[in-house]
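Hi W.,

Here's what went into the run:
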Amino acid sequence: MAALLNMLVFPGFLFLSVFGMYCSFLERKLYARLQSRIGPPWFQPYADFVKLVAKENIMPEDANPVMFSLMPVFALTAVTTAVLYIPIWGTQALFSFTGDIIVVLYLLTLPTVAFFIGGWYSTSLYARIGAVRTLGQLFAYEVPLFMSVLAPAILAESWSLSGISLYYSQHPWYCLFNAIGFVISLVAMLAKLEKAPFDIPEAETEIGGGCFTEYSGRLLAFFKLALMIEMVVGGALLSSVFLPFGLASGPVVGFILFLVKSVIVVGLFAVAHALLARLRIDQILDFCWKLMIPAALVQVVVNLIIKMVIR
Amino acid sequence: MAQSNSFKIPIGPQHPALKEPESFSVALRGEKILGVDIRLGYNHRGIEKACEERTFLQDVYLIERVCGICSHSHSTCFVQAVEEIANLDVPKRGLYIRTLFAELERVHSHLLWLGVAGHEIGFDTLLMYTWKDREVVMDILAMLSGNRVNYGMNTIGGVRRDISPEQIQEVLKGMDILEEKTKYYIEVASQEATIINRLSGVGVVSKEDAIRLGAVGPTARASGVDRDMRRDDPYAAYPDVQFDVILDDHNDVYGRTVVRLKELMESYKIIRQLLKKIPDGPIAIKAPRKIPAGEAFSRYEAPRGEDVHYVKSNGTEKPERVKVRAPTLANVQVVKHMLKDRYLADMPIVIAAIDPCFSCTDRSIALHRHDSRKRDVVIWETVRLAGIEWYKKNGIDFTALNKRFMARLQK
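Here's what came out:
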């Protein structure tokens, strides 16, 4: 019963949806203010969601109905599950086992795969180009993201997220060693969330809506919700690995700190969106493989050396 | 698509990247463009034919609606042709006001373009900023003419509204604001890495190709083609003002951005000179209802490039023939050339970089035969040759200007 409550209400689906949509509002508002626009009212994402859910579902005739309607739910489930292994209000997550950091990273990859499959099976040319771009981009950012998130684990000598945040909240200043990794994982997370300058898969001026071109109504709403939740979960993952300050100071303070950290990460996303133009897919591959991966490697080496010195 | 390695994707007639209905059928291999088929004609409104049914004066207003952005360009080009046929001597003050509007229009068109270009490369902040600043010049236009887009300023024999000294002060104030902003955009365009990455090396067209394909306006000037009607064939008040023709040798979309930004600075310069030198006197002379028989060919440097109007009168109050060649038609073949072997992601910005206005272009003669897929096109060269011959007959020789062009024709 408690597990079900955790899954569905807190910190699971309900909390994540509400907070994810609120973060989405914050991002849009900040983005708008940076462009000297007024921006949406606070309830805009909620209203959008309700409206989309109420709309008719239209499925292309040639699309595979099972895959087409399964993928949004699949993406949503994956991101909601991931949060159970991330420490949010303390150093201990709801569930944890050795190696859960890798499971979380994979759970966060699943939505991208779901976007690809959903786009592919909707049999529209635009959706298929978007799907191929999604996958191409996945190969670009996934490697630096994994390397930079796993580097702190080397220093903490723990392969569970709870273990990592426990170690870093005991040695808060060790976080500074992971600065490169934090920047890299922020950029990679931007690419994972398909946010500017990495919004290539859904570049509306090029290919309509990318993977989501044929989606409408409830299914589109689920996809959008999955992306918003992924933003929160991704932010939570980064803050538990790279910024575990104050997690040991009790659940209430820890929880408020979690909210603050998430909002800061979302703010950084909005600033990047406002300041940068969209890159091309070849430029992203270049950028990730020539710049981010060497930098992530440096981070791994740095942590290995520090570990030898400290321990 | 899954079976073969190349496929066709339709961009348009309805597509988020296009503001007007035009069809680009793009053959793709992966992300690479193999070729593009452009099909015009979704927006044909038959304005040329409609002009023959109306009087010259009514046509001024009809022609103004050829384009939403360069409305003043088309109407000026048309009245210039009619005035030439009727041998009207337009008062200086009228010409100055006409030129003032032409430059204000260029300012608002170039600022609009900058925003659109930002949007096409996913940089919406630039769009929001430039369009906010564009309101300054839109307000000036509204103050001077009462309208934001179709100003209704031109009439045969002059302009319809005078400007007051207070208005001149307002315009000068606006120019100061815009000059400041434009300097900032020039700085942004020369420093912002993602913009340069997305724009440079994209849509390259060499100087030779630009001449061969008949590119006009900023598209041609960004490839180093020294071509500007304001200097080459001065009209209105342009002989009285000093300005530089902006050239660039980047040959790509980045070059086109630089040219447009620097042209904005030139426009502010021209506007200041005009307002300083503007003479007193009447703004228009009365034109006869019936225009004597004759024909004229008028050239005008619109914000997008050279605009050409041909008007033939048979001595009645209605023209016998009106022909409009909007700048986009001259540039649309260049787009096809620029897109070859590029990435799909570059397509929106490459198309946008010529500042296309498809509904203007659809007034031109570019007929697709549905059954035989043949094209009937009155080639630009033919029109141009006819123009040169006509001017020669009237004692004006452009041979020196067009030496390169003639040499190529003889080849």
